[in-house]
Amino acid sequence: MPPPVFRFAPSPNGYLHLGHARSALLNFDLARETGGRFLLRIEDIDTTRCRPEFEAAIYEDLAWLGLSWETPVRRQSEQLARYRDAVERLQAEGLIYPSFESRTEIARLVAQKEAGAPWPRDPDGAPLYPGVAKQLAPEERERLISSGAPYALRLDMAAACAQAKHLVWTEHGEGPDGEQGAVTARPEDWGDVILARKETPTSYHLSVVIDDALQGVTDVVRGRDLFWSTSVHRLLQSLLGLPQPLYRHHPLMTDAAGQKLSKSTGAMALRELRAAGATPADIRRMAQLP
Ligand code: GLU
Questions:
Q1: Are 214 and 245 in contact (CB under 8 A)?
Q2: Which residues does the UniProt record annotate as the domain Glutamyl/glutaminyl-tRNA synthetase class Ib catalytic (predicted)?
C-alpha cells in the first residue's frame, strides 16, 4: 500500500491563528503516525485578498511550530490552466451556464423572493442563486459575453445531480450534527454554485478537488466549517472522474463566547502569541493537541 497523503491548505489572506495551527498540526501528526506524507498547498486564487507577505508568514509560522513539508509547495495561482480545462470539460457536457447578475442585483432578487416566502439558504447561510440565467437563449449568452459583461460560470445543480446520483463520503471525524461514517452528500443544498468567473477561471470548490486528486491526497483533514462543502466536492469528483479521499472534519477552535476563531473575531495570530512569549508546546496545548 502506498503511504497515505495529508495536506494543509491555507489561504494567504491573513496571518495563521490557533484554528490553523490545530489543522496543520493534526495533519502533520497523522502523517507521522501513519508513515504518511505531509504536503502544504497555498490556496491563493483570490488575488484581491491574498498577499505575498501572508504566504511568507505561513512558511515561517509553520516552521516555528516544528512542521516540515515536501517541496516544491503547490500554489493554486500557478495551476489556472488545469482548472480551466476542468471547466471546459463540464461545459462541454452542458453542466455549466454563465450568469450575469451583479452581487447587488442578486441581493435585490433575493429580497424580492423573500417578500413572499422564506428563500432557501446554503449550509453557510447564503441565499441560493435566485436568477434565471440558466434559461437564457444561447444567442443572448453569446451577445452578453461578447459585449464584455462580467459573468460567473455556475454548475447546473439539477443536471449535475441527475448525472451523479446518491453520493456518499467516508467521514472519520464528525459533522455539525454528529454525522460519522458513510455520509450522504447533499450537493443540492448549495444550489447552482459558482465554479469560475470571467476574471478567475476557478473557485474554491473546483480547485480543491482537482488539487487533492493531482497531489494524490488520500486523507482530507480540515475544520468542521467545511463539512457540508464536501457534498459539492464529492459531486465534482464524480463528474470529473476523480478519486475520493477519506475525510476527517475536526472541531473548530472557538473563543470564550463560542464564536469560531477568525481574524474578524479578533483571534490572536500565531506570530502575536509568539511575540508574547508562547512556545510551540504552548500552541499545541492551546490547540488542544497532545
Ligand atoms: N483553503 C481553505 C481555507 O483556508 C481550506 C481548504 C481545505 O482544507 O479544503 O479555509
A1: no
A2: 7-278
Rounded CA-CA distance 223/231 in Å is 15
Which grid cell is 120?
432557501
Per the structure, the complete domain to which residue 199 belongs is given by 5-77+156-286
Pairwise CA distance, residues 192 & 194, whole Å? 7
- Give distance in angstroms: CA of 226 to centre of ligand 1: 8
Rounded Cα distance, 222 and 230, in Å: 11
Number of domains the chain is built from: 1
- For residue range 197-216, list pLDDT tens digits in order: 999 999 999 999 999 999 99
Output the ligand 1 site: residues, CB below 6 A: 9-11, 43, 208, 222, 226
Whole-number Cα distances in Å, 163 to 159, 195, 252: 6, 17, 34
pLDDT, position 159: 97
Which residue, by CA, sits nearest to atom 3 of ligand 1?
Answer: 10
What band does 290 get if pLDDT is binned at 50, 70 and 90?
confident
Cβ-based burial of 146 (10 A; exposed 0-12, middle 13-18, buried ≥19): exposed
- Please give the pLDDT value at position 266: 66
Summarised one tens digit per residue, pLDDT across range 43-99 is: 999 989 999 999 999 999 999 999 999 999 999 999 999 999 999 999 999 999 999
138 belongs to a structural domain: no
Whether 265 is covered by a domain: the verdict is yes
Residue 88 lies in a domain: no
Does the residue 214 lie in any domain? yes
Strand segments, DSSP code E, in 76-229 are 96-99, 152-155, 168-171, 181-184, 194-197, 219-223
Which amino acid, one-letter code, is at 143? R
Q: Which CATH number fits the domain that encloses residue 193?
A: 3.40.50.620
Question: If you measure from the C-alpha of residue 10 to the centroid of ligand 1, how many angstroms do you get, rounded to a whole number?
Answer: 5
